[in-house]
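Notes to self after the call with IL:
- keep both proteins in one doc
- input above output, always
- annotate only the second one for now

Protein 1:
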Amino acid sequence: DNITNRIVYNIEVYSLEEILKEFDKDSVEFIIATGEPVARKSIYNKLKDFSLNCISIIDQNFKLSSSSSSSIEEGTIVHTGAVITCNVHVGKGCFINKGVVIGHDVTLGDFCVISPNATISGDVEIGENCYIGSGAVISNGVTIGRDSIIGMGAVVLEDVKPESVMVGNPAKLLRKNESKKVF
């Protein structure tokens, strides 16, 4: 709510208070541009409390399997070069970065952040508020519990309990994610 720069990339920036005061709610659309899953959720819920519209931004170079029965919920950002195959469900408020590959029959919970060049194999379930680091690989059939962090380059071969921080190849538990935050 505290605005320090009024113009960002030639776009005027308004505080939430200014938006609610000066604009018709039906004409306001927002995106969430942070890589912190819990912050994404908090911002989303706050803006939805004011009945503001959360939109998705999906890059034109995004690849969705032609025979796909996949779905992407509102407020999700999908970057260039991302590939989503068949029967994938992407929850609301997710952030799928550049070069991410998501295999068949995958469920991403709400507010997940998938960093550049991560690979999620088939039949994987990722709980809400998870963060998958750059270049991480999630093996077939794995479940990752909510509020977990998978470190850069980690190779996850087994299920991950909720609120876990996993690193390495093969991925091992570093610590519990007690704060439920990445940064």
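Protein 2 (the one to annotate):
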Amino acid sequence: IKLQCSICWEDFVLSESVRQLPCKHLYHTPCIVPWLEL
């Protein structure tokens, strides 16, 4: 199974910073933080 960020659609790599929201979805930290700061 390949996991992808739903914002940029790139696959996650083990060395990347990832954020999990309460809904259990995973995103690259640089992708989701701007949305959370709105």
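Annotation: The chain has a mean pLDDT of 93. Residues 29-36 form the longest helix (8 residues).
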